[in-house]
Amino acid sequence: MSAFGYVPGSLIGKAVDSYIPLNVEAMTDDPLFSDQVELRYDAAHSYLFAFRTLAEEYANVFATPPMFSFNRAKKLIETQIDNSDMEVVERYATGAYEITWRGLLIDMENHRFPLDKMEKLNEIFEINGEWSVYSQLLNKLKIDTIYFKEVSIEPVEGYEDTVSYEFRTKAIKPVEWQLTQK
Questions:
Q1: Is residue 6 part of a domain?
Q2: Residues 98, 71: contact at Cβ < 8 Å?
Q3: pLDDT per residue over 70-104, tens digit each?
Q4: Domains in the chain: how many in total?
Q5: Contact present, 125 and 148 (Cβ < 8 Å)
Q6: Among candidate residues 37, 63, 58, 158, the one with its CA nearest the CA of residue 117
């Protein structure tokens, strides 16, 4: 049991309290990781999911940064060998990432139910096409284009100005990219 580098002496076998120094790093204005995510379909459909600028300009930020979860699998063609418990893997392929976005829509200006943001969320989902995404996290996984598969929108109980959402998306690469990689 310790907090802020202080450990009661009884826990370390001494009759007096002892201080254990900790290495503490101060946070700076220049973050090592940016949680900003930009989603862009075209010039008229661009949305910023960001934390850093949220306190500065509410009007330019669509939502808080989403929490991502990623799922990816191998696609294998396997052939069972007759009268044996062995199998041969004939072909390997790596599937695309399936990405779940979870986040909040919050009316920070009027503190009312965010109907306008829900409408924009629905507009995002209704566009049948590929979206460009810009994010440090997604960039590290080589994800720059996605399409939407599912959306879920749900009010947050006890917070009249907040709605939670969940997108299920899948990473995609253009056919041109596939042809240039061979």
A1: no
A2: yes
A3: 999 988 888 888 888 888 888 888 889 999 999 99
A4: 1
A5: yes
A6: 63
